[in-house]
Amino acid sequence: MTEAINEVLSSGIDLAELDPSIRPQDDLFRHVNGKWIARTEIPADKARYGSFAVLAENAEEAVRNIITGTEAPAAGALAADAPEADKVAALYASFMDVDRADALGAAPIAGDIDRVLAVSSVSELIALVGELERQGLGGFAGMFVDNDPGDPSRYIIFVMQGGIGLPDESYYREDQFAEVRDQYRAHIERMLTLAGVADAARLAELAYDLERRIAASHWDKVASRDIQKLYNLRTFEGLQEITPQLDWRAYLGAMGAPEEAFAEVVVGQPEAIAGLAGLLVEDELGAWRAWLIWSIVRGSAALLSQEISRANFEFYGTALTGATEQRERWRRGVSFVEGAMGEAVGRIYVEKHFDEDAKAAMDGLVEHLIEAYRDSIQQLDWMSPDTKVRALEKLDKFTPKIGYPVKWRDYSAIAADSGDLLGNSRQVAEYEFNRELGKVGKPIDRDEWFMTPQTVNAYYNPGFNEIVFPAAILQPPFFDKNTDAAANFGAIGAVIGHEIGHGFDDQGSRYDGDGKLTDWWSEEDRAAFEQRTGALIGQYNALSPEGADGQPVNGELTIGENIGDLGGLAIAWKAYLRSLAGAESPVIDGLTGAERFFLSWSQAWQQKSRPEETVRLLTIDPHSPNEFRCNQIVANLDAFHEAYNTKPGDKLWLDPEQRVSIW
Q: How far apart are CA 232 and CA 222, in angstroms?
């Protein structure tokens, strides 16, 4: 495998793209991406644009060709036993029928709105929210099924804070979002008016004010990523006890959810759930009716007329992210189909676009990364021998998944209708609702994937202790089997290392190799770890990206991803050296192996972002801005400073004692 990885065909670096006016010692990100940034206009339908977006667009086009390669069936419902390809075509056809959507306007949701207006008690409201939640509209809380962090051999339901329409609780209280709040209130009124709702201005104010009060009990983003704080196991009776105003038995009955599935649940943010439930009193019924009408309109807007869909985009797209045009309808249609039957499309995508040789090469890369982690853990000077043993046990239990699932999802319960877009959406939501709840009480399905093969991304799942790399990310600039090993290790190798690193970040390190939330560290080792992570938090707190008007990175919010980036790149470098098996790294296109490695790393983070999107992501995204994912990480690596002979005064210079090394 080593020999195959090290076969040299090209450097993987376009030398003409490098900007000689910007020294890599000062700004590696712009040395590699500066010319692209200067000449590239962010597409009008994008809030940010770069390497991930380009690959995602390519995947969308491939999926469209797959979908349109099947002739759409005549209008009307398909039986549940119809071929998957026909169902996919019918779903897409229903979304692309613009004339029908415009003719119907808001009519598809008029009946639901009338039912809300007729609600005369809190108990009726609770029942209607439960019924609509089954059809895919947001309920009082965010709910999903995953394996239990305390007992990873079983599935359990998570009940998380919800009920708001802005990206985060901070949008309802911080001064910097005052203009957004004004725009949001106006947006609610406009959308209710377009939906034909009488007295839209008053209802909009009621809905917004209730959301504001719900958000006041929400945890912030930093607290909401702390798994130890989030893991609050409650019996059904215990859940009911903290939310006495919310009759869970009636709620679940209306939802069609078996009460036994809620015998025990994880309540993520108890104060937020209790805070929302405390507002479910008869004096607030008018506000709750307004809130539910707005939830119906907001949740259905993309599936209604072009006028309503466009108006919804003008807030959630333009106001929040800066994008000025909606994505083309066919792209939104592809997203709709992928959300409904993503693996059915993915199976064909893999057949047409995935090279099995890439899977074999990835197996070799993963092997090198895991062995490099093993070597590094054994050599750590801050971790005790006993904790090292536990860390190595966890590493031994990592499960890599590459390309596509070994078992495809069964969509036989879906019966699509090419003439009923909203009906399709709600039927798919019910299918997902039943599929998710159906997991509770059954054995863990470790073959399940939580991304489709055509997704340009990767993930680590702590409960399964698995790293997953969909087929669509296994292409340039991240991976190319015909490219030099240094470039592959600097890009996809660092991604692999990043995902493995999540198993040892500030939250992933709380889980053992079986996916159980348990404290397997000594107090001294945890303190040494947190000393290093605290230094990394401090570094990122001092950074502010271009376009943010001085708003800094939240080092605490982004620490998990920053640990992943730092460990991922450091271990990828060690894995590259390991792959050479003692041989000298070749010089290709005048670049050393180290230069190709770091240039490839920077190339992978190519991106431009609109100011509105930059601010939004700084507020809610656990990832740092791409320029710092590139630059701040290399500033901490001795190998980068050696490769480019950096010196004090260089902008990326960090004194050796200030460099953070964790894994």
A: 17
Lowest mean pLDDT across 77-86, 167-176, 533-542, 609-618: 77-86
Rounded to two decimals, the pTM is 0.93
Q: Tell me the domain boundaries of the chain.
A: 2-62+337-658, 107-303
* CB-CB contact of 561 with 623 (8 Å): yes
pLDDT tens by residue, 553-576: 999 999 999 999 999 999 999 999
d(CA 44, CA 46): 6
489 near 596, Cβ under 8 Å?
Answer: no
R_g of the chain computed on alpha carbons:
26
Identify the architecture of domain 2-62+337-658 in CATH: 3-Layer(aba) Sandwich (3.40)
The C-alpha atoms of residue 630 and residue 469 are separated, in whole angstroms, by 21
Look at domain 107-303 and name its CATH class. mainly alpha
Contact 544, 553 (CB under 8 A): yes
Residue 606 CA to residue 71 CA, distance in Å, equals: 38
List own/partner pairs for 374-377 with CB under 8 A and 24 or more apart: 375/574, 375/578, 376/570, 376/571, 376/574, 376/663, 377/663
pLDDT band at 6 (very low <50, low <70, confident <90, very high): very low
pLDDT digits (tens, 9 = 90+) for 170-197: 999 999 999 999 999 999 999 999 999 9
Other C-beta atoms within 10 Å of 640: how many?
27
Q: What is the 3-state secondary structure (H, E, C) of 572-604?
A: HHHHHHHHCCCCCCCCECCECHHHHHHHHHHHH
